[in-house]
Structures are given as C-alpha cells and as structure tokens.
Amino acid sequence: MKADAPANRTRTPEPAGLHREIPLAPLTTLGVGGPARYFLEAKSVPAARRALAWAESRGLPVFVLGGGSNVVVADRGFQGLVLRTAISGTRSEVSGSEARIEAGAGESWDGLVSRAVEEGWAGIECLSGIPGLVGATPIQNVGAYGQEVAETVEEVEAIDRATGELVRIPADRCGFSYRHSRFKEHPDRHLITRVRFRLRTGGPPALRYEELESAVSGNPTLGEVRKTVLRIRSSKGMVVDPEDPDSRSGGSFFLNPILSPEALARLEESLPEEREPPRYRVEGGFKVPAAWLIEEAGFPRGFRWKGVGLSSKHALALVNRGGATARQVRTLAGRIQERVRERFGVDLEPEPRFVGFDGEEPR
Questions:
Q1: What span, in angstroms and rounded, lies between the C-alpha atoms of 82 and 60?
Q2: Mean pLDDT of the chain
C-alpha cells in the first residue's frame, strides 16, 4: 500500500471543498486529459493556503489550473492536487493620466480588458479575446498584436509556496521577456492571487502590428481596436466559441522563434530563390512566424491525424477534432517540431504546459 507522505510529515486536516477524481478535459479549452486525483477550487487566499498546506503534508504535487487554456493534461490525469484559482474581485484608482486596476487571479481576462476599454484606459486593448484568467497572464507574459502584459503589470501578489507567505512582487522582479517570466521558469514557487495593472487614461490604442494597423483606418478608438482584434482572432479560430470547431484548441501551440542573423541566413539558404521567409526585427534578432514554418514544412491548415489536427484557419493551433487524446496531441506536436527542424534547422518551442506526463514519451 502506497503512502501519500513520509511517516514523519505532520498531516493537516482535509480542506473544505476537496473533491476526488474530477475529469480535467472539460476544464481545458483543448478538451483532452484524464482526471485529477484531488481537486479544489480556491475562492480566497486562506482557502488556497489551506489546500497547499494539505498537499504539502501528504507529499502531493500541486498543479494550479486557471482558465484551462495553454495546457495539455496527460491521458492518465494528474496524480496530485489540482488547485483551481477562483479569487475574484477588482478595485481601481484613477490619478491624472494613470489608472490602476487590481484584479483577483480568478477574474476573466477578457472581462478585464473589456472593462478597461469601456473606461477609456489604454494598455491592454490588443489583448482582447485571449481566453483564460487574470492570474495566468503574468506567467506567460501574454501578448498579441504588438502588446504584452509586461508593459502594464505593476505588481503581482502571490503565495510563496516555500514559506506560505503572501508576497508582492514588483514588475521589475518578475523576469519578463518574450512569453516568459520568473513564474514560468519556476512554476512551483508561487501561486498568483492578484495582479495590479497600470494603464493610461485617455491614451491612444497601440497600433504596432501590421495586420492590425491595416485593418483599421484613421484614428481608431480603443473600442474600435478591441472590436477589430476580436474579429481578427475569430477569423483564425482564436476566440473560444462552442459553434466553431477550430476554437477547440489550446491557442497558439508554438512560440514564434527569434533567429539570429546567422540562423536567418541559414533558413533563407534552405529555401528556393523565389521564397523568402517573413520576418520582423526584434531585440535579439528576427522573429519568424511559427505558422509559416509549419505550413512550409508540410503541415497545411486543416491537416488531420487521428483525433487531432491543425486549425483550418491558422496552422499555429492544434485542434481536438473529436475524441483526441493527449498522447495524440503531443505526438503531432513532436512530428511538427521534427519536420521543421529537419527542413529549416529551427527549433519550435511549445507554449502550453504539459501536465501529468512525468517523462512519458510521445508515440
């Protein structure tokens, strides 16, 4: 009989609201994965602390689940505690040209964006339509259409899982970079409870992305930019919609690789003379769209393999076509990575977090 924890570890009482063998697939946007051995929805900081202490006393691993996007859960599920953050509530303060809004980790991200736009607060309007909860946005340094949350995050409140203390981490200590942060680098160290953003009152919308800029005219308002972003994302199946089978995905599955000038030259040499890869100059080199690499490597939009495939609207999204397994998702992702590497010498890095696989190799 396997014990949950060493005999010398003091056990804490079982927290209220604890459930067993809860299916996780319905709680993710991709819709794959097995059950959580234990599951608890924490609606307050004390509830989250009690759950963490209980898991620690039993030597159980903990996975913090937000809105269920950007995650692939193994078919066998997660043999520990899945803690879903549901801390709600927002408060705001306006001073001169700045508006600060603090939101619980369990608040809807798009709901927060919608409110900011309605209030005339600029800074996150291009991040409209991104699924998930507020607490997840600093982890991935969520970004789209020329904006990322690192520009507006002022402070992150979190439970330090090493000490159990509630800490406040200023933005300059969050380690933000392209789709990265200290929270992503050390996923088991902090549980984010609230995030404070600093926005601009009456500020103009950000128009830094060619596709977005060409889709609006004149001097668009924040609301017009939000509507345009939502329309563009919907056209790519990147807005969760039960009526759109292409939206049954984890969002963008791979990061856009940033290539050095030398790596870009090698990529260009691998192509016929008439072909030229799209690229955007960024800090550290050139960003090349992963979707372009995927299609050029032989995986067109709408590609299908068993129960999984690529969106018919955007090659960057792996989609559950019905009855897909986590193993199939991981296998197709691996084959895409291998083909892109062989064809172009470029490594694609997955965006989602893989949960519960424990070294299991795709087949």
A1: 10
A2: 93
pLDDT of residue 2: 41
Catalytic site includes residue 108: no
Taking CA atoms, 123 is separated from 82, 128, 171, 327, in Å, by 32, 11, 15, 38
- Which one of 179, 321, 341, 353 is the catalytic residue? 179
Q: How confident is the model at residue 209 (pLDDT cuts 50, 70, 90)?
A: confident
pLDDT per residue as tens digits for the range 125-156: 999 999 999 999 999 999 999 999 999 999 99
| Catalytic-role residue among 69, 249, 252, 311 | 252
Q: What is the 3-state secondary structure (H, E, C) of the chain?
A: CCCCCCCCCCCCCCCCCCEEEEECHHHCCCCCCCEEEEEEEECCHHHHHHHHHHHHHCCCCEEEECCCCCEEECCCCEEEEEEEECCCCEEEEEECCEEEEEEECCCEHHHHHHHHHHHCEECCHHHCCCCCEHHHHHHHCCEECCEEHHHCEEEEEEEECCCCCEEEEEHHHCCCECCECHHHHCCCCEEEEEEEEEEEECCCCCCCCHHHHHHCCCCCCHHHHHHHHHHHHHHCCCCCCCCCHHHCEEEECECCCEECHHHHHHHHHCCCCCCCCCCEEECCEEECCHHHHHHHCCCCCCCEECCEEECCCCCCEEEECCCCCHHHHHHHHHHHHHHHHHHHCCCCCECCEEECCCCCCCC
The confidence score (pLDDT) of residue 359 equals: 63
CB atoms within 10 A of CB 328: 22
Q: Is 179 a catalytic residue?
A: yes
pLDDT digits (tens, 9 = 90+) for 103-127: 999 999 999 999 999 999 999 999 9
Q: What is the pLDDT of residue 242?
A: 85
Question: What does the pLDDT average to over 307-318?
Answer: 95
